[in-house]
Amino acid sequence: MKYRGIIFDLDGVICHTDKYHYQAWKQVADQLGIYFDETINNRLRGVSRMESFEIILERYDGAMSEEEKERYTAEKNEIYKELLKNMSPADLAPEVKATMDELRERGLKLAIGSSSRNACFILGQLGLDGYFDAVSDGNQITHSKPDPEVFLLAAKLIHEKPEDCLVVEDARAGLMAAKAGGMDGAGIGDASDCELAAYHLKSFEELLEACNS
Predict the structure, then answer these.
(1) CB–CB of 211/103 below 8 Å?
(2) Catalytic residue list
(3) pTM of the model as a whole
(4) What is the 3-state secondary structure (H, E, C) of 160-201?
(5) How far apart, in whole angstroms, are the C-alpha atoms of residue 180 and residue 177?
(6) Count of CB atoms within 10 A of residue 110's CB?
(7) More exposed terminus of the chain, fewer Cβ within 10 Å: N or C?
(8) What one-character DSSP code corresponds to residue 48?
(9) pLDDT per residue of the chain (213 residues) written in tens, 0 to 9
């Protein structure tokens, strides 16, 4: 096969938590009197929590200390984690699990490469605790996407060279990170038509064909 490892982004690829991020950020933005909608929320995909808050603060007229920023981002995360408790294995699409099982049967190593610090909790909610060969997440990295750190760490954890790994991403920033790390990227969802993608997936199952090409 062309690849030895597949590195998946989590949010928007394995599952969809956008609505929970939106609801949590909306509560914080409303407290501060900042206009926030789903269009702005889409800009936050694939970036760190603090960088997301900086984007939201573009519409904030006042000054905010670093300590206050830490407090508000921590509050957002607590709201988000509470909302994540609503997730269950039912939020894992059958075609996603079936495709990953087939990739594993073909001998490929599977890893998560996510900027989220809640990746392991989400995987547990989905019934995927311990499923992946490695999990590289926001708790282990210093730089978020489009920096390639999270994907390079994932490749290291599964003991594979970056060029032998394929990254599956739904965000342009993630595909930029994959390219910067010397990896091919497969775009899915909103990134399916991104020019940075080596493969343009219209469905998760098409990943099987991409790995054989």
Answers:
(1) yes
(2) 9, 11
(3) 0.86
(4) CCHHHEEEEECCHHHHHHHHHCCCEEEEEHHHCCCCCCCEEE
(5) 5
(6) 18
(7) C
(8) -
(9) 789 999 999 999 999 988 899 999 999 999 999 999 999 998 887 778 899 999 999 999 989 999 999 999 999 999 999 999 999 999 999 999 999 999 999 999 999 999 888 999 999 999 999 999 999 999 999 998 899 999 999 999 999 999 999 999 999 999 999 999 999 999 999 899 999 999 999 999 999 999 886
